[in-house]
Automatic annotation (TrEMBL):
GO terms for biological process: glutathione metabolic process; toxin catabolic process. Belongs to the GST superfamily. Tau family. GO terms for cellular component: cytosol. Keywords: Cytoplasm, Detoxification, Transferase. This is Glutathione S-transferase. The lineage of its organism: Eukaryota, Viridiplantae, Streptophyta, Embryophyta, Tracheophyta. It catalyses: RX + glutathione = an S-substituted glutathione + a halide anion + H(+). Is involved in the conjugation of reduced glutathione to a wide number of exogenous and endogenous hydrophobic electrophiles. Its EC number is 2.5.1.18.
Length: 230
């Protein structure tokens, strides 16, 4: 298999697969997207990610790379001719990585938790998510230094790590009728989200909110062991 043969094993609703797709687009790398259906998990997935058996997996030539944030860093290092994704300054890099870990270990798991509960039980989770967004608004002020993105003039590592969740954030807002990004509390992130979704590397691959909402309803019903409900 040729070294420039690039495949991405992913799934359309996956925010993690979206990270890899955005990074590949930033670097203008052509790749084949292989949709994993998980029913059952494909041989290719089991062989490529035997530890976690999860998507995304980037297959570069015959080498599988697993874990979305590792994949984004790999793409940045393997295709140096395109714009840099990680900041050049070690301290800025550390800050981007810090927030990416916060998003994956704290913020998004809370959002996933929304699907497992109903009604009033969702409010405290939305409050926690909202507090996290306010922290990210402050972080944006420090990282962006007045520019459009966490990464400055262009989409960087933290933009990808956070921006991949925007579809799911909209779904959470629709499900609960509560706002997470709003002009009053998070004006800079409202603008950032618009710029992010309009960027050439993102436009066209961000899942539609309504389609994601239907998917979320089925997933939520499965998590609660009940038939899907509006
Ligand atoms: N930490 C992983 C998370 C990947 C992940 O959770 N992938 C989900 C789809 S969004 C998956 O493959 N789930 C299948 C499973 O859990 O068996 C990453 O960043 O790549």
């Amino acid at each position: 298999m040729a070294k420039n043969d690039v495949k991405l094993l992913g799934a359309w609703p996956s925010p993690y697969a979206l990270r890899a797709r955005i990074a590949l687009n930033i670097k203008s790398v052509k790749y084949e997207f292989l949709e994993e259906t998980f029913a059952p998990k494909s041989e290719l997935l089991l062989k490529s990610n035997p530890v976690y058996k999860k998507i995304p997996v980037l297959i570069h030539g015959d080498k599988p790379i697993c874990e979305s944030l590792v994949i984004v860093q790999y793409i940045d290092e393997a295709w140096t001719s395109g714009p840099s994704i990680l900041p050049s300054d070690p301290c800025d890099r550390a800050i981007h990585r810090f927030w990416a870990v916060y998003l994956d270990e704290t913020w998004f798991p809370t959002m996933r938790g929304l699907l497992a509960v109903q009604g009033e039980e969702r409010k405290p989770l939305m409050d926690q998510l909202s507090e996290g967004i306010v922290l990210l608004e402050e972080a944006f002020g420090k990282c962006s230094k007045g520019k459009a993105f966490f990464g400055g003039d262009g989409i960087g590592y933290l933009d990808i790590a956070f921006g991949c969740f925007l579809g799911w954030l909209r779904v959470a807002e629709k499900i609960t009728g509560l706002k997470l990004l709003d002009e009053a509390k998070t004006p800079r992130l409202v603008k950032w989200a618009e710029s992010f979704c309009a960027d050439a590397a993102v436009k066209g691959i961000m899942p539609e909110t309504d389609k994601l909402l239907e998917f979320a309803k089925v997933l939520a019903a499965k998590m609660r062991g009940a038939p899907p409900k509006n």
